[in-house]
Design a protein that fits this description.
This protein is α/β, with parallel strands linked by helices and about 240 residues long. The protein contains eleven helices and twelve strands. An eight-stranded parallel β-barrel has the order 1-4-5-6-7-10-11-12, surrounded by seven helices.
């Protein structure tokens, strides 16, 4: 059964969504992220994906106080990303209650450091962020594209024992155009042992059901929920929630 992971993206301490990572496209959906997290928990979700968009832009964690408030107020298992550039950032996220952190840019720019973190904190607590645009891994809040191709990038880290991978197809993110299912299926064919978290483009409940039928282990969704396109009862009737 696919793991359902609603998302809270933070700018200025508020729940927002962007389109294709464009900060100028920001739309505020809830000014109280703690209340939003409590709503997700009340609906039956057990995981939460938090992205510190201020942190991604500033290259260090910014919204750790919001993270702490959410983990204090709920029993959700929270993974946290955005602005994780140093060991201090990781410890700050864990101290604020995150169960896992997502490391993306550093895995590209300083792979030796990322490998050290895997050893220090453990494979279960580090999620490899693989944000893709035109087949290349994107970094620094999606403002830059690296020269790294997706599959060789994944292959390197899976070789180090990485199990958790969050893959976002940037061209789909926030568009409600449907997920990059073919891409996620390709990753699962190549690396069936991976706990792949599909991200970007989910437009409705049917998209989630389709990903489940395709054997995708987990999915992140945000805008589709905030826009009223996710039918909680349908998820329950399909035994996904």
């Amino acid at each position: 059964m696919i793991e359902l992971i609603p998302a809270i993206d933070l700018i200025g301490g508020k729940c927002v969504r962007l389109t294709k990572g464009d900060y100028d496209s920001k739309k505020v959906y809830n000014e109280d992220p703690v209340a939003q997290a409590m709503e997700f928990e009340a609906l039956g979700f057990r995981r939460l994906h938090i992205v510190d968009l201020d942190g991604a832009k500033s290259k260090h964690i910014v919204n750790d106080a919001v993270l702490r408030a959410i983990t204090n107020a709920t029993g959700l298992t929270v993974d946290f990303g955005g602005g994780i550039k140093t060991e201090e950032d990781i410890r700050k996220a864990f101290d604020a209650g995150a169960a896992m952190v997502t490391v993306g840019s550093v895995a590209v720019t300083h792979p030796e450091l990322c490998v050290e973190w895997l050893k220090t904190f453990g494979l279960d607590r580090i999620i490899l962020g693989a944000d893709v645009r035109n087949g290349k891994i994107s970094i620094n809040g999606w403002k830059e594209d690296s020269e790294q191709d997706l599959l060789p990038f994944l292959n390197t880290y899976i070789g180090y024992g990485v199990k958790n991978v969050l893959c976002t197809e940037i061209s789909k993110d926030g568009t409600l155009a449907g997920p990059a299912t073919d891409l996620y299926e390709q990753i699962m064919r190549e690396y069936p042992q991976t706990h792949l978290i599909a991200s970007g483009g989910v437009s409705c409940t049917t998209d989630i059901i389709t990903l489940d039928k395709c054997g995708i282990p987990a999915v992140v969704f945000g805008k589709a929920y905030y826009e009223g396109r996710i039918d909680i009862e349908e998820l329950k009737s399909n035994k996904l929630l």
